[in-house]
Amino acid sequence: MTAQTNIVVLWSTMIAMAISTSAYAEIEMRPRPTDEKDFPEYIKYLVDVAEPRSAEARAKDAEMQKKYNNSNVVDALFVGAPGFPAGLTSQIYEEAIQHSIDNKYTLVSATVSNGKPDDTPEVVKRRMEETNAYWQQQPERYLQVKSFDDIEEAKQASKLGIIHNFQSMRPLAKDINNVEVFYKLGLRQMNFTYNIDLPDVADGGESNLDGTDEGIHEFGLQVLKEMNRLGIVADCSHSSDNTCIEMAAHSSKPVMMSHSQLMTFQDIPRNVSDKAVKAVAATDGVICVTFIGGFLNAKGEATPYDIAKHVQYIRNLVGPQATCVGPDYVYNYAETLDWILRNPKDFPIESGYATPSHMGKPGEIWGVVRELEDRYNWTKDEIEGFLGENVLRVYKANWK
C-alpha cells in the first residue's frame, strides 16, 4: 500500500470506531490547522465529535418513520457519486444509498460536481456517464429520474429515484451549449458557484464577507435563462446573497436553496439572509436546511432540536410551503476533511468548513419531524410538505 492509501484506511477505521464506541462528547472549538503534519490528529478529533445522537436516541424515531411511511421523502442535496468526492468508493456509496433507503427517502438529488478546478466538461461528462451506467446496472435498486412522472414510477416500483445536480457552473467552462449537454445526461438541478466568486458567472458566499457582492454576472444570467428553457432547477446555496436575490428576480420558474442555513442563527458567509430567503420563497420556491452543526450555530451542534429551530424560523418568515430538507452529509468524511484542509480558498474557515461540528446523517430527519410535531405543533400536511412535497412542487414546475 502507498502512504496515502494507509492514511485513508486509518481514517476509515477511525470513523467506524468513532461511531461504534461513539464519543458523543462536548464539542471543543479547536483551531483549524494549516500545517499538514497536524491534519491527521485534527481530522480524528472532528470524526470523534461528528455524531449528533446515539443509536439508542435515533431508534426512538421509528414511530415517526411508521407514521409517514407512505410519504414522499426527498433529499435535495445528497453528496456524491462513485469516485466523487475525495475518492468515494462504491462500497461506501452503496452504504450511503442504503442509509437513505432505510430511512424512507424516495428521491435524492446527488451532487456529481461541486466545481473543483479540475472538473472540466470532459471530466464531469465522463463521471456522469459512468454514474448513469452504474445506476443502470442495478435496475432493481435505482431509477434515474429525468421527468416528473419518473418519481412516482420509482416509488411504485420500490426503487430509489435519483437525479444529478451540480453545486457550481464551473463545469460549463463558460460554454452555454454545455448546459444542454449535461441536461441530456440527467442534470436537473444546478447552483451558480461553490463559495468562491466565478468571473462572468456569479458571486459566491465569500462576497457576503468582504462586501463586494455583485450577484449574477452576464454568463450566469444566460445560463439561468437556458436552465428555465430546458427544465433545470436553479439553486443558490453556497452563492452570495445578491446572487440568490437576483436568481429569484430573473428566473421564470420557482427556484431553491437546496442546502442552506440562516445568518440569523449563525452569521457566516456560507449562510443566507432573511432577505434572500424571502426572495426565493416569493417564486414559490423552497429553502432546504442542512444537518451540519457548523452552519447551524456557534456550538457546532446538529441535534434535531437545532435543525428544527431553523426550519421553524423559515416557516414563520415565509410559510411552511417553503421548507424542505438537504442534509449535505459526506460519507467519506475523513478523506473529505483532508481535501478541505488542503484547499482553504474553496472551503474558507470563515464559513465553518472543517471546524469541530456535528455531521447529521439524512436519517436525522425523523428526529426533526418529532421536534416539529411536538415542539411546534406542525400538522400532518405541513410535515409532508417539509419531507418532500414542497420540493416536488418546485421540480414539477421546472421539469418538462
TrEMBL record:
The keyword Ligase does not apply. Keywords: Signal. Gene3D superfamilies: Metal-dependent hydrolases. InterPro entries: Metal_Hydrolase, Pept_M19. Residues 1-25 form the signal peptide. GO terms for molecular function: metallodipeptidase activity. GO terms for biological process: proteolysis. The keyword Nucleotide-binding does not apply. This is Dipeptidase.
